[in-house]
Amino acid sequence: MGACVLRRDRKEASSIVSNGVAEATCATTKPARIQPDTEMTQEIETPRSPYEKIGDLVFLGRTIDKIRLKAAGRLRPDFFALMGDGYDARIMNYLKLDYAAFAEFVLSGASDAECWQYCVRNGRKLSDVDVLIWNDFAAKRGWRDSVSGLLEKFKAESGLAGRDDIQTFFEYWEVDEGRKP
Prior knowledge:
- The chain has 181 residues and is α+β, with helices and mostly antiparallel strands.
- Helices cover 40% and strands 10% of the residues.
- It has seven helices and seven strands; from the N terminus they run E-E-E-E-E-E-E-H-H-H-H-H-H-H.
- The protein is globular.
- The chain starts with a strand and ends in a 5-residue tail after the last helix.
- The relative contact order is 0.14.
- The N terminus is likely disordered.
């Protein structure tokens, strides 16, 4: 899957913060806070790379992973706030799909290929140009556009403010989630 994995194990936690919550880190990722009373054999993960395509579209696999990982209790907690919002909402709106209905289908045990077929059957028909527009829009989001400031905010919060090489959200996620230095 290409996801960064954090072991929920007190021995591997890098520090204990004042409120008694273990803090573990992985490569250049944000710390994941882990309650000491939780099941310590679970792994915390990030979704796959946004560049990975499901069917013809970038990012769709990431939305699927977030749904699956959260349901399994393995999604890195900082992803919770934007589930069904942000890029997830954009791709669902672009496909003319309801996020809640799609999530329910994903959680029925559907494979990636079955999720793509769900999109084809239940969403709007995409032309080659529609696919090109989505993929180019999504991959370049944050670069000299209306959300460039938001990207800079995310970078600053992750300790990546000085990284001028990170110019899009896709690039940010690759670094923040440990797939690239």
